[in-house]
Amino acid sequence: MKLGFCEKCGKPTDACYEIRNNKVYLVKFCKDCGRTSSLVTKDARKWRWKREIACYSEPSGPACSLDCGSCDHQLHTRPSTVSIDVTNLCNQRCPICLAYVEAMGFAYHPPVEYFEKIFKHFQKQDPKPNMCFFGGEPTVHENFLEIVKLARSYGFQAQLFTNGIKLADRRYCEELCALGVQINFSFDGTKPEVYKTLRGDNSLAVKKKAFQNVIECGVNKLVVISTVAEGVNDTNMREMLEFIHEHKDHVSVWGFVPLTPCWESSDVRLEPTTTECVEKIFEQMIPEIEFVSTGMMKFKVLSKFFGKQTLGGSHPNCESATLMVSDGLKYVPISSYLTVPLSQLLSELREMDETFVAELAELGKSGFTRAIFEAKTLLKTVAILYRSLRFRKVFGEKYVRNGLMALGDLVRGVKIDRILSERTCFKKVLTMITIPYEDQGGLEDARLKDCPAVFAYEDIETGKIKTTAFCSWQTVKDDVCRKIQAHYGAQENDQKRLVASVRR
Q1: Which of 143, 310, 349, 455 could join 473 in a cystine, given CB atoms 3.0 to 4.6 angstroms apart?
Q2: What is the pLDDT of residue 417?
């Protein structure tokens, strides 16, 4: 038996998966509210395949208590990504959203000192996690630029998740981009009607202006985030892919948020969209494309070659991703350059990585044995890549020379992404990733336990910085933010009264 959140009262309760007509549901059995269920996916076959290819075994009992209000996630899983809600103020009123003032019932806008407490808490973690800013709309916080500067001063990589509207202000955009922040830009489609349905406005024109501003201001990394809703913008994804290819020199990642039913308004009548729905849209559009769980892209020993991935969670039914390569005219799937499916290549590398982890644990401190181990890891990695790559297609006309130079780069410790850029045809690579968050009904203990992405906040009662798994933030957010605002709002009022009394 698993644990999930009751659809009615929101409390942790017994749960299990049920498959009906190739759809997967998480069914909850609450002693107070009875039986409820949530759609997890519309493609049970793909959902199960992800588990099989990752050799995943369901835990025999609950992996955690799901008592996210009292738990501190960082105590058992060190975060690679720390997210912070900056404010619930927003310059849009999206009908599909509940993360703004009117929906939450109070305004949330903590002062700069609140964020500094969080930065100080994580400053000694090695490696430092990325700091991601969410809202509401973070840019409407009056001190947002100061918050980003502060994060950067503590040595953090900073990421902003924004609707982009404020960035249509050229001066503001220049100030923000100069801080070296990664911008995750919400861009749902190339047609006005998409925004009318999902955002309740006609913001396409201002978004295009803001998007162009970001590019002209030379931001170091630009990520496009699209909320995908079946029947709304699924047929617009081909034009979106072409639009992103036009900006291939600037956009490195395209993320998809499947639309889950988190709205309250009865006026919103949209179909729930799942991760596998998004994958199917592109599989029908590009038959050779293959999405795999992001956990399959994470390595321990082999990270010295491939780099440390901060993408997504580790559970096979969490985020999924794939790679697209520009041939100069369009994006083509990474599978076009492989002799085996992407999932098979990653499975072989993961299996080898796990073997190396076990061997490394038994190695002595002798420099000679370590040198032998390093040589073996290199040779075996190269052997797998050699038989899995379409060598001439990857390395071009001078494939022998380029291949040997790439091997030399590997020996010297050069990371794969740089080798691909300098020695192969992979000059412009686009990572496509599904990001299934805000899906409280489908959350369960095993998905959350080992998630390396967290939301961080100050526990007002203890003054300590606590964390919760990224997706479970929705289960505690309103209560936590209300307490934070009450605490800092009271401090602000006290300061105003003090200033007023001094002036008198």
Answers
A1: 455
A2: 79
3-state SS class at 159: strand
Could you tell me the CA-to-CA distances from 436 to 261, 346, 430 in Å, in that order? 12, 22, 19
Nearest-CA neighbor of 223 among 159, 302, 307, 318? Answer: 159
CA 251, chain centre distance (Å): 16
Report d(CA 393, CA 402) in Å as an integer: 12
Average pLDDT value over all residues in the chain:
90
Q: What is the pLDDT of residues 87-109, one digit of tens each?
A: 999 999 998 887 778 878 999 99
Tokens, residue 275: 């991760």
Task: Give 114-144 as a DSSP string.
Answer: HHHHHHHHHTT-SSPPEEEEESS-GGGSTTH
**Omega before 261 cis (within 30°)?**
no
Band the pLDDT of 244: cuts 50, 70, 90.
very high
SS3 219: coil
CA nearest to 484, candidates 148, 130, 104: 104
Cα separation, 453 vs 365, in Å, equals: 33
Distance CA 78, CA 497 (A): 42
Q: What is the per-residue pLDDT across 394-417, written as a single tens digit (0 to 9) for each?
A: 998 888 899 899 888 888 888 777
- What 3-state class would DSSP assign to 309? coil
The stretch 356-378 carries a mean pLDDT of 86
* Torsion sign over Cα 416, 422, 425, 431: positive
SS3 217: coil
Residue spans of the domains in the chain: they are 280-435
- Can you give 20-73 as a three-state secondary structure string? ECCEEEEEEEECCCEEEEEEEECCHHHHHHHHHHCCCCCCCCCCCCCCCCCCCH
Distances (CA, A) of 404 to 382, 409, 411, 480: 11, 9, 11, 56
The pLDDT of residue 502: 35
